[in-house]
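Design job #97: recover the sequence.
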């Protein structure tokens, strides 16, 4: 996993996957906007072939851990969730990571994860975290 600072307070995290079958390349991406004491996950994408392997949870969990480690003044991570059938796996992922609903709207809900936060994924997934790319 690597991170790139794209503008003031905005970061893109990329996840690559390699396994015994080869290098799958970039399979996950998260765009995070850090402001004041919160980190807002503005966009999260994962290859649907990889999500069934638990990669999405491991990737986003590692992103959240790294954000808190790099910015200890953060008090929470925030994620907006649009209630659509195709987004249901994302809601499960948020719940697995410990996010709780703060506000429910007609089309959109807000989920929050309090910091401090540490994620240790399944023992069969080995994460390597790279420093910021420029």
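Job complete. Output follows.
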């Amino acid at each position: 996993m690597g991170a790139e600072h794209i503008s003031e307070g905005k970061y893109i995290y990329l996840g690559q996957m390699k396994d015994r079958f080869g290098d799958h390349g970039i399979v996950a991406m998260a765009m995070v906007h850090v402001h004041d004491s919160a980190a807002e996950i503005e966009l999260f994408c994962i290859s649907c072939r990889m999500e069934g392997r638990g990669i999405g949870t491991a990737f986003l969990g590692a992103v959240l851990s790294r954000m808190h480690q790099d910015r200890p003044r953060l008090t929470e991570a925030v994620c907006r969730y649009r209630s659509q059938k195709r987004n249901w796996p994302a809601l499960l992922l948020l719940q697995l990571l410990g996010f709780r609903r703060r506000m429910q709207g007609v089309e959109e809900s807000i989920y929050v994860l309090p910091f401090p936060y540490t994620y240790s994924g399944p023992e069969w997934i080995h994460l390597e975290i790279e420093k910021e790319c420029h």
